[in-house]
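Holo prediction. Input below; ligand is adenosine-5'-triphosphate.
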Amino acid sequence: MDIAGQDINSSAYMRIGIDDTDSPAGMCTTYLGALLAGRLSDSGMTVRETYLIRLNPNVIHKTRGNAAICIDVIGDICTAFSMACDIVEELADFSCDETNPGVVVSDRALPAEFYKKAVTDFCEISEAVALLEESEALFRGYKNGRGLIGAAAAVASVLEDRTSEILVYRRPDCRGSPRMVDRKSLFLADGETSPHTWDTVDRENNIVVCVPHTPDPVLFGIRGTSGEWVLRARRMVVAEAPEREQIFTTNQGTDAHLIAGSPGALEHGRSYLVRGTVSTAPMTRSGGHVSFYLSEGGFSVRCMAYEPTKGFRDIIRMLIAGDEVVVAGSYKGGSINLEKIGVISIVPKREQKAPFCSSCRKRMTSAGKGKGYKCRICGAREQDPERVYLARELKPGWYEVAPSARRHLAKPLCRGHPDLQRYGIEDQEG
Ligand code: ATP
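Structure of the complex:
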C-alpha cells in the first residue's frame, strides 16, 4: 500500500488525511489530528485549517461516529507524510482487528465526488487506492488499509456548508477516570451562545450532551456556527485542566448525508429526504418506539421514531393518514430511522358519532351493524352518523429529534430546515 517512493514534487500547500486509528477501547482520530497539527506547527509548518469530516453514518466498520480528519498545511510534503505516519504508528490502536489506519497526503485536489460518495454511500478500499494512485498522492494503508477510504474522502472534501467544533482533550493521567465537567457551567454556556451553538445540553430532557461516556481522550466538544462562537461557549465551561484543545471546521450539522429518495427506491445504508403521504396511523410499539407508513407512487415505507428521540415521538403520534410530510433519515432494515420531519399539510380529523334525535334531543344508539341509528326514547331512526371535525394539535412545519439523539451530520433546525427545492422535492401542498 505504501507508494511513498513515487516521484511527487514537494510543494508549499497540501492536505493530510487520517482515518481509522481508534478502537472501542480508546484513542480517537480527532485527538491524533490535533496532536499532529501541533507537531506540524512546532516543526515550522503553517497549519491553515483542521477539518473533522463525518462520513456515511451507516458504515458497519465505524467505531463511533465515522469521523476522519484532514489538515491543510503549508510545508514540506515528504516531512509531513512521515510525521503523519509516525503519529499513527505511535498512537493507533493496532491491537484491535477493526483498526486499519490510512494516511493520505496530497498537494493537489482529489475529486470531490469521492467525498460525496463516502458521505452518502459506500466505497471500496480498491476505489480509494485507485484514486490515490491516479492523483499521485502519498499514502499508506496499515493492515487491510480500510482507513484509506476515510483519509482520501477527508482530503477530497469540499464543504458546501460548514460548522465548527472545539474538542477539548483530557490529560493522559486523567483518562479512564470520571470526567470532571461542571454541569451548571455547560447549561450557562449553552444559554449564552445558543442558537449559535447547539447540542451542548438537551434542555427538554435535562441531559448533558457534549461530554462523552466512551473511553477516549475527549473531555467535551462544543458545536456551533463558527470558531468564535464555540470558543465563546468553551470559555464559560468549568472543567478539569485539559491536555489540549483544537477547533475543527466540520461538515457536522449540515445534512451532507441526505439525498432525495422515494419509497419504492431506497437503498439500505443510505440517508434520504422522502416526501409522501402518511398512510397508516402511528403505532407505539414495545420499548416506546413509534412507527407509521409513508406512501408515494404506489409504494410504502415504514418510518421509525425510536425511544431515544424522546419528545419527537409525540409529534409523530399526532400524524394521521392523509397528512403530507417530508421525512429525513437513514434507510436500514426496511425502515427510515427518522432524524426530522417536515409537515407540509395536514388533513382534517373527523370522527363519526351517533346522531341526535330531532324530537328528543338525545343521542341515538346504534341499531345494529349496517342498520343505522335508533332513538331509545321515541324509536325514531336515522341512517347516517353525525360527522364531527376535531381540532388538530399538529401544525405544518419542521420537527426534529432531541439533541441527545441527533446524528453528527444532521442539521439542527436552529440552522434552518432542508431546502427541499435543492433536492428536487416539491415544498408546497400537493
Ligand atoms: P474514529 O474516532 O477513529 O474516527 P470512527 O467511528 O470514525 O472512529 P473508524 O474507526 O474510522 O470509525 O472506522 C470507519 C471505517 O470505515 C474507516 O476505515 C473508514 O475508512 C471507513 N469508511 C468511511 N466511510 C466509508 C464509506 N462510505 N464506505 C466504506 N467505508 C467507509
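The radius of gyration is 27 Å. That is the main takeaway for now.
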